[in-house]
Amino acid sequence: MHRDDIDGLRTFAVLPVIAFHFTIFPLISGGGFVGVDIFFVISGYLITRTIYQDINNGTHTIVDFYNRRTRRIFPALFAIFPFCIVFTFFSSFPPEARKISTSIISSIFFVSNLSFYNQSGYFDQNSESNPLLHMWSLSVEEQFYIIFPLIIFLIRRFDNKIRILLLCAITLASLLYSVWMVYNDSSAAFYLVQFRAWELLIGALLAINAVPKLVDQWHAELVGVGGIALIVISVILISPETRFPGLAALAPCLGAAAVIHSGAATTTLIGRILAFSPIRFIGLISYSLYLWHWPLIVFYRLFASEPTRIEKGTLLAICVLAATISWRFIEKPFRQKPYKLKPYGTLLAAGAVMIFTSAAALALSPLIEIAYKYPSRSIDVLSYAKLDQGYMRVGTCFLIVSDDEFNNQNECLGIKPNLPNFLILGDSHAADLWSGLHASYPTVNFLQATAAGCLPIIENHSRQSSVCAKMMKLIFQEFLPHVHLDGVIVSARWRSEDIQGAIKTANAVRAYADRVIILGPIVEYDQALPRILARAIASNKSEAEFAEQHRSVSPKEIDRAFSAALQDGPIQYVSVYQTLCTPDCEIWATQKVPLQFDNSHLTCQGSVELAEKIGPQLFPNIPPVIARSGVCGATDARPTELFGS
Description:
Layout: H1 4-22, H2 35-57, H3 62-91, H4 94-108, H5 112-119, H6 136-154, H7 160-184, H8 186-191, H9 197-207, H10 217-237, H11 250-262, H12 269-274, H13 277-284, H14 286-303, H15 309-335, H16 343-362, H17 364-372, H18 376-382, H19 389-392, E1 398-399, H20 409-413, E2 421-426, H21 428-431, H22 434-440, E3 445-451, H23 466-479, E4 485-491, H24 499-509, E5 513-519, H25 529-538, H26 543-549, H27 554-565, E6 572-574, H28 576-580, H29 604-618, H30 628-632
Parallel strand pairs: 1-3, 2-3, 2-4, 4-5, 5-6
Helix pairs in contact: 1-2, 1-13, 1-14, 2-6, 2-9, 2-11, 3-4, 3-14, 3-15, 3-16, 3-17, 4-5, 4-16, 4-17, 5-6, 7-9, 9-11, 10-11, 14-15, 18-25, 22-29, 25-26
């Protein structure tokens, strides 16, 4: 039985996702990505209900199940792939096209979640510019539906109480596994099906009547209102810094389940609101809307900077139009039965389309090379859009994953009595300073205590990760009280609300060091600087002017606020922004090497360049040693190819 209120619930799933990705109402849509979790619950409910109905009617077959899934998923999905292939042909360099081709093929075979998990990392700036990133959720669903129908079929003859107990046990195991994994490998918890299965299983448990139906009208009304409240609160309060999915995902999932359950036996106020035609319509096109919104925003950002409000509104209108056309002329016709092909024919046709589309994706990069013949210098510059983990000392003195520790404290925190000892403290924007300072000032001993996403602020706050908490405890409770340093250099990717916390921390550090220096924010861009420069070179445009068009405004504003707050105080403030942007912002570390490898972090050569520029402010009595090749290898040497083959 079709339920209009569930169509409307899909609206509450897709709109937060779009608001999050388009940065619409950011203060109240920071948790918009929970819409995917709502989709999982809805899917688990509807698919399980259909399977059980077929089993009870004696009509369930695996072939028929996958025939229906193919008709539901494939048509709209395979309209997206040609669009991405064509747009990539006109917008991307060959190495980028190879990356997108891989994503298309992994999406076609529903393993993109595995692909993105393997690529995930703290410095993975490529995912955000991948038009197929959102396909991970479809891969999770389809992997779940490879196994789940078989489980349902195998336990079909069990007593219903036994079936419920078995599925409850699996659900609980998956949830607990997710809660554990989110603290140990957050990327795995996010992308992999075993850590997401519990969300789909919540819907499945509703479908098999694991929860008694609500026969009292007021009970149903309260459950429905409570469910919507949980969803709204999750969207507002959850943020990208929240440990997710884990326990945080329970709220939106239980909210979706509550809404579904409240309307199972009676019509509620929430059900009538969700069934209201405009709300329901967005739900009807939600699948196509989800498919189209991310490629459109990604491809737009490749050619322009972050869209304005008017541009976002226009893009959103285009998304709705594309989704409406897709729903009306692609989704609906293929879901009708019969539609020319019988189940086996549908599956064979789907296989043929998968092979053909994969071949087209594989041909993409060679065709771009033949058609455009990009200058070799642009490809060389683009290849710097990759972290060289060695120069930041990833895993040793720059900690990223939760089980990283300063195993060799002497290497990172070893005191040398015969040299000035300066501690570099902070996040990745502190870690990328070490090599440049170490190479430029060999007569100074630079200690390094840095961790991913770790604001060097001693107060507990929501942005602090477990690896950050461990590092801050080590430094402030075990290390600093037992030493006295010549100086501490504090650096991070600051936000305006961090200023007072940074100053408070710096004042606390003064008890352990002769000097405390706060380094301000660095120049940032709306995409990786090497890509910006490569595009400028390929189109024969001014590199400086083109980079200026993509330069972010907020770091300059934060720098001014820091300068005003620390003027004439005991804490020294060094403006990295003004150092690099007086008179014009630096974009090259050398003639051939970009200053930064992504939108903000320094290349190895960029680290040396910045060290030479800020060195006189840090060490006015020590001349720098220009030794770029010693730490970075040959000045013009390219790093390992970013995109592979």
